[in-house]
Amino acid sequence: MRRWLKYARPYKLFFILGPLCMLVEVFGEILLPKLYARIVDIGIANHDVRFIVLSCILMIVSALLMMAGGVGGAWFASKAAVNLAADVRRDVYKKIQAFSFENIDHFSTGSLITRLTNDITQIMNMVNMIMRMCLRAPGMMIGALIMAIAMNPSLATVLAVTIPILVVLIVAVIRTGFPRFSNMQTKVDALNSRIQEDITNARVIKSFVREDYEKERFAQTNHDLRAATFSALKVVITTMPGMMLVMNFTSLAVMWFGGNQVIDGRMMVGDLSAFINYVTQILMSLMMLTMVFMNASRAMASARRIAEVLDEPVTLNDDDAKHRDLSVTKGSVDFKNVSFRYYKTSEDEVLSGIDLHIDPGQTVGIIGSTGCGKTTLVSMIPRLYDVDSGEVLVDGVNVKDYDLTKLRDGVGMVLQKNVLFSGSIEENLRWGDEGATDEEVRAAAQAAQADGFITSFAEGYGTMLDQGGTNVSGGQKQRLCIARALLKKPRILILDDSTSAVDTATEAQIRKAFHNELKDSTKIIIAQRITSVIDADMIVVMDDGHITGIGTHEELLASNETYKEIYYSQMEKEEASA
C-alpha cells in the first residue's frame, strides 16, 4: 500500500476533492426521497399548492447540486487516476530500461508490454472507481439506512436479513475472483507474446509456408485466454443476478409488510415510497461495493504483476562504481581469468578461464565456430553482462568501477542482430551523436559505404524507415548500423559479424575506412570469414568458450589446428565456387 500512496501523494488535492464532491451527490440522493414523501403526505394530502411548489424547487436545486457534485467527482477522479497511472507507467518503463539482459530474460517481452499497458490500465480504472465509490457507496448505504430506521424501525428489520446475505456474496466474489483474474492476465501475456513473435517474424513464417501452423498455435493461445476470461467473468455472471434476486425479494418484502402498515394506518403512502427508495439505495450501494471488489480483484492481480517489475533487483548497475568521473580515453582491454554462465544454476560455462590483452589502437579479429562464446566475450566490455569470476579491465580499470553511461559512451558496438528504429535514416544515424553536423553524418555514412544507396532514395537522409528497418535490405541495414557506430567516434569499436551481408569488395572499403577514420581507436571484429580479419594486428581463435590461439594470420596458420581447419575449408569453398 505504501508504494501506491507514493504515487497518490502528488495528487492528494484531487484525491480529497473527488470523494467530497461525491458526498454532495450522496446528500442529494438521501434528501430527494424525503422531499418526495412530504409532497405526497403533506402537499397533496392537504391540497397545499404552495408547499408542493416550494418542495419541487428544493428538489430541483438538490438535483442541480447533485449534478455538480457528480461531474466534479468524476473529473477529479479521472485526473487523479490518469496522472497516477502515467507516473506508474513512467517508473515501470524507467525500471525496464535499467534492466540488464539477465533481468529482461526473466520476463518475456509480451509480459512486459502487458504490464506496461493492460495492467496499468487496470490500476487506473480501479483508482477511478474507488474515488467515485469510496465515499459514495458507503455514504449512500449509511445515510439511507439511518433514514430508513428513523422512518420505520420495524420495517427496517427486513434489511437485517438481506444485508448479511449480500455481504457473504461479496466475500465469495473476492475469494473466487482474484485467482481467476490473475490467471486471465497471465493468458493475456501469452497472447501478446504470440502476436509479437508472429508479427516480428512474419517474413520467416511466410518463407517456410508455416502460416497454418502459426494459426493453430495462435488459436490455442486465443482459446486459453477465452477460457480464462470466461472463467473470471462467470464470477460476475453468477453474482449480479443473485444480488438482483436478493434485491427483488427485499423490495417485495418491504411492499408486503409496508403495504399492510399503510392499510392499518400505521404508515403513510409517501413514507412507504420513500422507504422503498432508501431500501433500493442501500441495496444499490452494496452492488456498487461488489463491483468495486470485483474490479479490485483484477486490479490487485495487476498491481502484484507491476510490483514484480518494480521490485526486480537489477543485476547489473554502477552503484558501487569507484571512478564515476572516469571516461574511456585510450582503449586498452584486458580479460583476466574470466568465466561466465548465462544460467547461474547451470554447470556449463559459456566462457572459461579467458585471459586476453588488447593494446590501444589495435585491430583484433575474433574467429571461431558458432556458439563458441565470441559475442558473449565482447559483451563483457561495455558490461552488457557481468563476469561470474575474474575481471574485465578497460584502460586498466575494472569495468565495474566505471559509470555505466561513460563506459558505454566510450564503446561503439554493432550487434550481430542489426536494429533500426522507425523514423528517418538521419534520425537513426544520429543515435551515434545527436549533436553531429550534417557533414559529420554524411561522412560517417560514406565511411560505412552507405551514402550511395541513401542518396539514391527520393528523400535521401530523410527517408523514413519502417519499424526494425524492414524496408531496407540486410546489407543496407548493416551499413547503416556501422555508420551509426562510426558517428559515435568510440575509443573501442566492436563489430559483431556486422559485414556478413555485404560483398567482399564493400567490406574491404569499410575496413579501409576503419583504418583511416578510427586509426587511434581499438577495433574488435568478430567474423565468420577469415578474409574479414586476415589483416588484423592480432587474431583470437575461440572454441567452446576457450581461447585456443592468439597471433597473426601467418602465426596461426603455422601453429593453430582450429584456425588452419577454418582457413582451408573456406579456401576450398571459394575455389569450388570460382
Concise summary:
The protein is of the alpha/beta class and 578 residues long. The protein is built from 20 helices and 12 strands.
Task: Write up what this structure looks like.
The chain contains 20 helices and twelve strands. With 578 residues, the protein is of the alpha/beta class. Helices cover 64% and strands 10% of the residues. The chain has a six-stranded mixed sheet. The model has no long low-confidence stretch (mean pLDDT 86).
Low-confidence stretches: none
How far apart the termini lie comes to 71 Å
Structural class: alpha/beta
- Largest beta sheet: what is the strand line-up? 6-9-10-3-11-12
Strand content: 5-15%
Task: Quickly count the helices.
Answer: 20
- Integer average pLDDT: 86
Overall radius of gyration: 35 Å
**Major sheet characteristics:** 6 strands, mixed
Oligomer: single chain
Number of strands: 12
Q: Helicity, in percent?
A: 55-70%
Shape: elongated
Secondary structure: elements and pairs:
Blueprint: H1 2-8, H2 12-44, H3 49-98, H4 101-106, H5 109-133, H6 136-151, H7 153-156, H8 159-200, H9 202-207, H10 211-263, H11 269-311, E1 333-340, E2 351-358, E3 363-368, H12 374-379, E4 389-394, E5 397-398, H13 404-409, E6 411-414, E7 423-424, H14 425-429, H15 438-447, H16 451-456, E8 464-465, H17 474-487, E9 492-496, H18 504-517, E10 522-526, E11 538-543, E12 546-551, H19 553-559, H20 561-577
Parallel strand pairs: 3-10, 3-11, 6-9, 9-10
Antiparallel strand pairs: 1-2, 1-4, 4-5, 7-8, 11-12
